[in-house]
Amino acid sequence: MVKKNIFWAILLLLIGSGIYATCRQDVIFLAPFKGTKLMESLKIDICYHNGDVFTYFLLFCLPDGLWYLALLLFQKQFYNAKSLTSKILLIISALLPFVLEFLQYFKVIKGTFDIFDICFYLLILIIFIIVWKLKNHYTRKA
């Protein structure tokens, strides 16, 4: 199960990174590569200012959500129900994107606050918790 979750987390990170590398090259982790031939060859210009909700979701919410789910999957691998430190790290991981969004809202850090990101993070967190609880429930029964 550990390898399966790690595989999915890495795949989600790659997909999210792929969206950033092709469509949103202005993100901070790509700054060292800005203006390189590699980045120019990957760039896809997509007009998202026309109010298309689906395109907005794909370019802005989905990659952030994929990264968040990957973080939760990675953190789950280190979770130990008997360890207070492990519980605290899981809570911090679960809260991190919400805190970052609100720090953007209050202009503490650079970025654009997006209520849709918060809604998507919340949806991901709820589904993650439900699936985790169901798996634990059925694992104990078996």
What structural keywords apply?
142 residues; mainly alpha
Main sheet, how many strands, which sense, barrel?
none
Work out the radius of gyration.
Answer: 17 Å
Q: SSE order, as H and E?
A: HHHHH
* Overall average residue pLDDT: 88
Question: How much helical structure, as a percent, in the residues?
Answer: over 70%
Please report the distance between the alpha carbons of the first and last residues.
16 Å
Overall domain count = 1
Shape descriptor: globular
The total count of strands amounts to 0
Structural classification? mainly alpha
Give the DSSP E fraction (strand runs of 2 or more residues). under 5%
The poorly predicted ranges are none
The total count of helices amounts to 5
Write a brief caption for the model.
The protein is mainly α and 142 residues long. The chain has one domain. It has helices spanning 2-23, 37-42, 53-77, 84-105, 115-141.
